[in-house]
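Q: Could you write out the predicted structure for this multi-component system? I'm mainly interested in how the pieces pack against one another.
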Amino acid sequence: MAGIKDVARAAGVSVSTVSYVLSNKRSISAETTRRVMDAIRELDYTPDASAQKMRGVRNSIIALSMPIRGDINLAKYNAYFLRTAWEAKNADYDVLLLTGEDMVGDIQRVTRSNLVDGVVLMDIEEDDERAAKAATYAKPTVAVGYPLSHDGCACIDIDFVQVGCQAADYLYDRGHRNVILLRDNEHDYERRSGYVVMFHESMMDRAEELGMSVLEFSKTDLARFDAVEFVHEMFSDGGMATAIISQAPASVLDHVLKEMQVRGIRVPEDVSVLSCGTFLEGEFMTRPVTEIPVMPELLAHKAVSLLVDSIEGGKSIAGMVDLVSPVIQERGSVMDLTAEGGRGSR
Amino acid sequence: MAGIKDVARAAGVSVSTVSYVLSNKRSISAETTRRVMDAIRELDYTPDASAQKMRGVRNSIIALSMPIRGDINLAKYNAYFLRTAWEAKNADYDVLLLTGEDMVGDIQRVTRSNLVDGVVLMDIEEDDERAAKAATYAKPTVAVGYPLSHDGCACIDIDFVQVGCQAADYLYDRGHRNVILLRDNEHDYERRSGYVVMFHESMMDRAEELGMSVLEFSKTDLARFDAVEFVHEMFSDGGMATAIISQAPASVLDHVLKEMQVRGIRVPEDVSVLSCGTFLEGEFMTRPVTEIPVMPELLAHKAVSLLVDSIEGGKSIAGMVDLVSPVIQERGSVMDLTAEGGRGSR
DNA sequence: TTGTAAGCGTTATCAG
DNA sequence: CTGATAACGCTTACAA
């Protein structure tokens, strides 16, 4: 590989001149510039990244920490992951993927060795070790999520307490008093995956305040989920529920929709459906479902922007928290029971 | 950040001693080792990656080039991607993600600047620019796929010509003479995504040789796909077909299975189903489907192993091709029409 | 067993 | 406008 010296020799100038031609940090005669550029092209010269970094040039790499578990919700996962990669690229940063078992160790290694300039933490749990140890990373860190312990990093997330309240209020306002909750993957509950739990608690609290009754259905482990059983139980157990709140992934929810369709149960005329903390966009659904979605594009954008600002501005972002207000997407699957005539809400 | 000099000072030794303690390249007294290790722990010292690299130490990073299109089959995509990341990690390499528009430019940049030690190309098309320009990359490159032009890189893929023959033979041997082909996403055909096209051509050729009739159904664009129409057309158009060969993703195929179930069409008694070049494992299907699957684990493993060997052994792998023989996964969805009594094949 | 010093490929400072 | 050179943090001959 040709180095800067080779270029200098070929162009008949000094190495510093070559460097300055590339960096535009001092004025160079047109003639010299031309000769140098020719030599660069001729030799296919690309500056060595390590040498540049040793001289203080940023390498523009951010680490993306994403645990790979067997039970992840791929669609949602991907939406966040791909969008974060896209935002990074857009800000002219490369992405170094950290997926191993020893997440904390890996992050410490890549930050302390100056391999990366910053860190994004994805798929955050309530007790997230990566976030808890963020103070030991040598570079600014932002978590997409809201872990309990987060002194060392910034946090960007949807305000899931608000999502819970909004969900309860939304249904209450439309006359629903008995709802059934189709829980997310139980693994996520066991792991206390941050948002899943926060939404759940907030929604249940709010429902109780309002005097709504919430029946929980939890067999949403994908491998074991049985839509037939769910629909059966839902309508056999007193048959009081007028609405379903779903945390389940698209495929599971769609099975429920299908099963109801088969049984002649209409949405929203017979039962309303509201999906919360999900990402149904682009999924193949039997019918559109009103949703309080997660917002991968927005969160990824905020996370990367904040991180890049910190990297380039040198300001610390440790401890910062930005909780975004949820936005409900009306898709006509919730019935307004208080409306005259009993027509759908949309 | 503490450097090697700080450690040396704290331990009361020279910098070379610290370096040798870390690298074990010469014997150090127990006492000195202890003092140095203490200082390292005390100061949280981690060697600077750039400085090491400048001295010829490998940085153990491979670039993973994966285009992000709107229409990718996420499940399959992920299986490859996650597995490749896992294999890399397992071989002690970090992964630098390249997802941008200017894939060739990015690969040239990260290889020539010595940022990475090798490159893996994913989601290869028949005319793949990345593979065609592989000779211009400064590091060994392996493509997971089989592009037309591949002089500059190694190729690892399933032998899709064999898959096509196997599919036709498998059904022919079991007495099927009229089959319907549920094509993959049309985008993949338009783009001439390598394997999709190779399978298709090979299967059609073989079917013709055998005198089988193949009816093609191509509305498998996820957004527009209509299982009802498909099943209707399949059984109205003469109703001759005894089997479906599917290239479609799990969700699309499952819709078809559901629609047939609703209509009382039994699998495999009334119609057989064979899925080819897909990755149904872990997908939620109405019933198991016999499959000639892609093999993400195997291909990722082979690709990373080959690449790492080349990096560490210094041997060129340009032009190498490794086509893996397909393995059929029997899951009882294909009926053996030649068997006495007409029972299912499994 | 340990220390000294050269040098990796850049950038920036200081002279011209 | 351009050139020589120190310095970045580390590894590794070469000396002791």
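A: Regarding packing and overall arrangement: Chain A is about 40% helix and 15% strand.
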